[in-house]
TrEMBL record:
Pfam family, one: DNA_photolyase
Entry keyword set: Chromophore, FAD, Flavoprotein
Domain Photolyase/cryptochrome alpha/beta: 2-131
Taxonomic lineage of the native organism: Bacteria, Pseudomonadati, Pseudomonadota, Gammaproteobacteria, Lysobacterales
Protein name per the record: Deoxyribodipyrimidine photo-lyase
Amino acid sequence: MPTALVWFRNDLRLDDQPALQAALAQGYAPVPVYIHAPDEAGPHANGAASDAWRHRSLHALDGALRARRSRLTVLRGPTLPALERLAAATGAEAVFWTRRYEPAFEQRDTTIKRALRRGGLHAESFNGALLIEPWDVATKQGDPYRVFTPFWKTASAQLRKPRPWDAPKRLPAPPEAADATTIDALGLAPKRGWDHDFWTQWFPGEIGARAALTTFLPRIAAYPDARDVPAIEGTSRLSPHLHFGEVSVQRVFAAIGDADAPPEARAAYQRQLGWREFAHHLLHHFPHTVDRNLDPRFDDFDWAPFDAVQFDAWTRGRTGVPIVDAGMRELWHTGWMHNRVRMLVASFLTKQLRMHWSHGARWFMDTLVDADLANNTLGWQWVAGTGADAAPYFRIFNPLLQAKRFDPDAAYVRRWVPELGTPRYPAPIVDLAETRDAALAAYKRRG
């Protein structure tokens, strides 16, 4: 039976895995492989929290493969020569993988595909991460969208009901690779165990992803209102599972569509999946936005000089603004932050402290277990007002009013800021009214 390499990346699952499906459908015995090549991610690689998650997710994938009599072959990069050596050693005739949309990976994967084909291998990539490819949605003029609502209207009209593919019950045993290493040898797990608290709340891997989806489905009816309340489990908490591809977005979209909930509630969550699609649409078409503004009118905006003391207070949850501090502490202890609170802490950094959004974006990429370049870039530029936004005003969230509205009993704040109201809690590092006025003045100067 001929063999094919199935190259796993951020698609760490066997269920609804199009690269694996293609290998089996075309009559190949799949050789699952993961290649560790962090240098190839460019300057915007995911950070320590993501590495900690990946370590556990890779172990989960290897366990799932071994339960089917296969296993994950782990190699070190560079990627192209690693694939070529493994193909030669196993006699593979083909290499299959699912696409990634980060600029560094899009360029690298194109080079790899061409080189493999020149070498006589059948090389093919598939959409395993999105509902619709970024290049399949365009305005009537053929341009990429910059505003979400018309994007989602066009994209959703093209969607068809997903028909996810079930994971195989058995797989052929792959041959040994002489230069294979182990998952533990990659050094992804933190040496000092600072991530210990993460795993009281998270279960990386395909089983954990399906459990999170199953837990969320009965709560969909309450989702439109509950999603904004940080003190309760009102969101799906699927973001890291989706980022690492432990569950397919097609599977999630189909499950939500079939859920026993009002149509408007199901549509509200599917719309959030639409925002994820939009983020990848923007990243593909405007790759420069990982560093620079989507809206060039903000290129000369009067950002304040970077203040290391204030930034440190923000990262440590010591700003003296309770809901901001609660969010930053939740992030530090769990590797995650509620989406409403993400907007508030980002607004505080970019508006009240008036620091460039890239400082916060880098911190999130290092500390979030769901750090995703597309979503992170969209989110920070949306809050900063420099990105895809139809709103004709300079959005500034008032953290005190937001806390009163979405955490009226202070249940969320008191969980993460137990010293609130005591001498141990600091005074605000800035005056919220004064800094808001200063931000608006800077906006007016921009023109």
